[in-house]
Design brief:
This protein has 282 residues and is of the alpha/beta class. It folds into two domains: 138 residues, Rossmann fold, CATH 3.40.50; 140 residues, Rossmann fold. Helix content is 26%, strand content 34%. It has seven helices and 15 strands. A seven-stranded mixed β-sheet has the order 11-10-9-12-13-14-15, with helices on both faces. Helix 5 links the parallel strand 9 and strand 10.
């Protein structure tokens, strides 16, 4: 899904700039053979163009590239900014086996070739993604998380953040430091013979408060379901269940929310890929 906005700049009294935004219509036609044709509205006044792109598949990537080309032709010389909340292929950020593609670099090369003035992304999966994209800006995750924390604290006296695995530890530690909240660490347990994940292990004791699990992506949800079981299995003899919440920046929820909501009191996300409004907008 693409949303295109034209921005015009004017000067008001005391030379203060005034920004006016107007939508730019995008028409997408798909031919019987599967090819996509795009047309952008051409008569909208613009000093700059902003594209917000939710790219959920490879066809959407091609649509973005074609729309960008159409905008370059219709609005020659006008700078274009791209807001790309979720970066496709960001999870394929290394070559694990011979013969594989470094997919995130392939995608980054396509984006860089468009020569956007800047590319705003949200909560990249690893440091590899922002290192590969030119003129990248990482959107501040703190305001959305503050809203989630505020919501949880209306129902609970205290709160700790949970890093679900080693990959999330650095991110969660930084956020916890900014919010002055304690952190619980979890690690995935692997079979040393096969390398397969066999469970989740909670490090240390659990605090006597609600827990908010934080990660960048929830796809099918298995990681978070197993984490919830590990947390509830470590209740340390407490009679009352531990209030457990989940916040993910990118809620793909490819297997739905039913199974996740069996273990979590609420699920929050910034980018809900579904139409299920049980995922609370952060």
């Amino acid at each position: 899904m693409l949303n295109i906005t034209a921005v015009t700049m004017a000067r008001r009294h005391m030379d203060l700039p005034s920004r006016t935004t107007s939508p730019v219509e995008l028409k997408v036609l798909k031919f019987p053979g599967g090819e996509v044709h795009v047309t952008v509205q051409t008569e909208v006044p613009a000093d700059e163009i902003a594209i917000k792109a939710h790219l959920r598949n490879s066809e959407a990537v091609m649509t973005l590239l074609m729309a960008t080309d159409a905008l370059r032709r219709a609005y020659a010389g006008i700078p274009i900014d791209l807001h790309l909340p979720y970066v496709p292929y960001a999870r394929q950020d290394r070559v694990a086996n011979p013969g594989e593609s470094l997919s995130v670099k392939v995608f980054a090369n396509l984006i860089n070739a468009q020569n956007y003035r800047r590319v705003v992304i949200e909560d990249p999966h690893s440091d590899v993604t922002p290192a590969l994209i030119d003129r990248v800006v990482i959107d501040d995750p703190l305001p959305a998380l503050r809203r989630v924390v505020g919501h949880v604290l209306t129902k609970n006296a205290g709160l700790a953040l949970v890093a679900p695995d080693a990959g999330a530890r650095k991110r969660v530690l930084k956020l916890a430091s900014q919010l002055v909240l304690p952190v619980v660490f979890a690690d995935k347990v692997r079979d040393t013979r096969t390398g397969k994940i066999t469970g989740t292990e909670i490090q240390g004791d659990l605090p006597d408060c609600a827990l908010l699990v934080i990660d960048d992506i929830c796809d099918g949800g298995r990681t978070f379901i197993e984490l919830a079981h590990a947390i509830h299995g470590k209740r340390d003899g407490r009679a009352a269940p531990i209030p457990l919440y989940l916040y993910v920046t990118h809620g793909i929820f490819s297997k739905g929310l039913d199974a996740v909501l069996e273990d979590y009191a609420a699920v929050f996300t910034r980018n809900n890929w579904t139409t299920d409004d049980r995922a609370i907008q952060a």
